[in-house]
Amino acid sequence: AQTVTQSQPEMSVQEAETVTLSCTYDTSESDYYLFWYKQPPSRQMILVIRQEAYKQQNATENRFSVNFQKAAKSFSLKISDSQLGDAAMYFCAYRSRLGGGSQGNLIFGKGTKLSVKP
Amino acid sequence: EAQVTQNPRYLITVTGKKLTVTCSQNMNHEYMSWYRQDPGLGLRQIYYSMNVEVTDKGDVPEGYKVSRKEKRNFPLILESPSPNQTSLYFCASSFWGSAGELFFGEGSRLTVL
User: Nearest CA to CA, how far is B101 from chain A (Å)?
Assistant: First the structure.
């Protein structure tokens, strides 16, 4: 079974600085998706960025980028020019591309709580 | 507007009193799922559904039931709630195999006394 591990329960960053959140995963599959979701105090789950495993190029969305290392099964999130609104819980998640049964379910890490200091 | 709608958003109930949390999506998604979120445990899947009349257990199904009679609706039923089911619940949906993104409802905070 696949697992997702976020080793940093809490992180802190100064406003305008850069922070990197770590995520590792375990799978025997070669084709899958990886995601970072943000959960602000409103509790809403917001998709930050998505990476498809067959793509070698790292995904980027404005100030958010990932470092996807497929062989190492690592998927870190870098937030540049951190803003107060980035303060939230961040979840790394894995989803198989294989169809059928539980293989397509989204598997989450336990989350990293990010604080942004003004 | 494309959305996943859960009701109620907040509920306080007592042990043993049956309750249903409704979930509806307007995106014609085949796949729907329920998660519970607890501090330090992340999101854990309760049940999921691949399509109408097709449901299966997730990682923590004990004490819950679901049904999928219509494509848009996927209610979560707690037949006899207990305090260990106090949690934040999320419903989510997606197309199957299309970029993989799950769309989430706004969450339902349930307290069982």
Answer: 8
Contact at CB, A43 and B101, closer than 8 angstroms? no
- Among all chains, which residue has been given the structure tokens 């042990």? B15
By three-state DSSP, how is residue B68 classified? coil
Distance CA B62, CA B77 (A): 11
Residue of A nearest to B40 (CA): A110
**Residue B53 CB-half CA count within 13 A:** 0
What confidence tens digit (pLDDT) does each residue in B71-91 have? 999 999 999 999 999 999 999
Sign, Cα dihedral of A105, A109, A110, A115: negative
Within 13 Å of residue A28, how many CA atoms lie on the same side as its CB? 2
Residue B21 token pair: 């949390």
User: Chain B: nearest CA to A72, how far in angstroms?
Assistant: 22
Tell me if B100 and A33 make a contact (CB, 8 A cut-off).
Answer: yes
Cβ neighbours of residue A36 closer than 8 Å, sequence gap 6 or more: A21, A23, A47, A48, A49, A64, A66, A75, A77, A90, A91, A92, A93
A vs B: CB pairs below 8 A: 60
Q: Specify the residue for token string 């992340």.
A: B42
B54, B38 in Cβ contact below 8 A? no
How do residues A49-99 score in pLDDT, each as one tens digit?
999 998 889 999 999 999 999 999 999 999 999 999 999 999 999 988 765
Does residue A36 sit at the B interface (CB-CB below 8 Å)? no
